[in-house]
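Module 6 notes. Inverse folding takes a fixed backbone as the condition and produces residue identities as the prediction. Think of it as a translation problem where the source language is geometry and the target language is the twenty amino acids. Below is one complete input and output pair. Work through it position by position during the lab.
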């Protein structure tokens, strides 16, 4: 296994998505934070645990894990995105945390040392592996015997309209092809129950369990026009219609934003736009 296998993702998370995620980290935490909190609750980190946070991004969960395993435990965040790791280090220093570190690496193939961690955790960072069995085998080997793997990943697209409704509206507006079936690395790569269970068992993990967590996602905070237009702009810039949107004249951009807002308007409430989302809380043991 070589780093090249994930080179598309390395490029994506460094050059395209990474800077946007750094700029919008608070929004990401608002959208996915509650799912991550439930995953951490399920993982039950305790003082003394050695923890690996896979695809840690800007490090929000690494900081929570480090606090949970203090004073004698330690959390290590690993990610392929240099720009997100830089932000993670900055936020950890600002929070005054010392029992954590962030390393640049590919969780699929980089050696982390055998029998090392009590917990391997991830909030939406395990769906991007070119070879998931190899990745979970590698992560499993880094667990001490009896150590636990806990991660949260998205369920099927139909159960996540908060993501798919705006994306489909944007693609329709710019007459781009709809996304193909959920194959290969991407947000829905681990959405099918039996597929995930099979991958983990093939990677040698035991006691595999998937539990549904379904909740409303606060897609837009605030229900005023400017709130919605800011959200629609960000959504278009961050999605597959990005190039078409940015290259369009301002009146077309405004129509695209209005179209996106219209697509989610049925979900508007006083404080913003809330839409359903669903994920798997996955756990296994070495
Ligand atoms: C959807 S983001 C989640 C980030 C973070 N866990 C959060 O919840 O904010 C996915 C993360 O996985 C990272 N990633 C993708 N492939 C990876 C790999 N092979 N090894 C390590 N990190 C990876 C990306 O760089 C990105 O930071």
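Target side of the pair, the amino acids:
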């Amino acid at each position: 296994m070589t780093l090249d296998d994930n080179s598309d993702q390395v490029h994506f998370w460094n050059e395209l998505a990474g800077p946007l995620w750094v700029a919008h980290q608070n929004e990401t935490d608002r959208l996915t934070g509650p799912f991550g909190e439930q995953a951490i609750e399920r993982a039950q980190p305790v003082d003394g645990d050695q923890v690996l946070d896979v695809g840690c991004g800007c490090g929000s969960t690494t900081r929570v894990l480090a606090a949970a395993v203090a004073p004698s435990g330690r959390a290590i965040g690993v990610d392929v995105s240099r720009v997100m790791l830089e932000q993670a280090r900055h936020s950890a220093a600002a929070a005054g945390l010392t029992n954590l570190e962030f390393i640049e690496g590919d969780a699929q193939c980089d050696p982390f040392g055998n029998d090392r961690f009590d917990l391997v955790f991830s909030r939406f960072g395990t769906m991007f592996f070119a070879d998931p069995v190899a990745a979970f085998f590698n992560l499993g080997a880094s667990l001490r015997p009896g150590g636990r793997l806990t991660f949260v990943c998205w369920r099927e697209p139909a159960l996540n309209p908060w993501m798919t409704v705006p994306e489909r509206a944007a693609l329709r507006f710019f007459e781009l092809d709809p996304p193909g079936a959920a194959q290969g690395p991407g947000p829905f790569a681990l959405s099918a129950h039996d597929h995930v269970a099979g991958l983990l068992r093939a990677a040698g993990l035991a006691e595999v369990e998937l539990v549904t967590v379904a909740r409303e996602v606060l897609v837009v905070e605030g229900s005023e026009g400017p709130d919605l237009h800011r959200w629609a702009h960000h959504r278009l810039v961050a999605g597959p219609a990005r190039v078409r949107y940015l290259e369009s004249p301002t009146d077309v951009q405004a129509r695209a934003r209005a179209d996106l807002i219209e697509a989610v308007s049925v979900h508007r409430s006083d404080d913003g736009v809330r839409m359903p989302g669903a994920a798997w809380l996955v756990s296994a043991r070495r």
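Reference fact for the lab report: The pocket of S-adenosylmethionine is lined by residues 6, 9, 13, 28, 32, 55-58, 60-61, 78-81, 84, 106-108, 123-125, 128-129 (CB under 6 Å).
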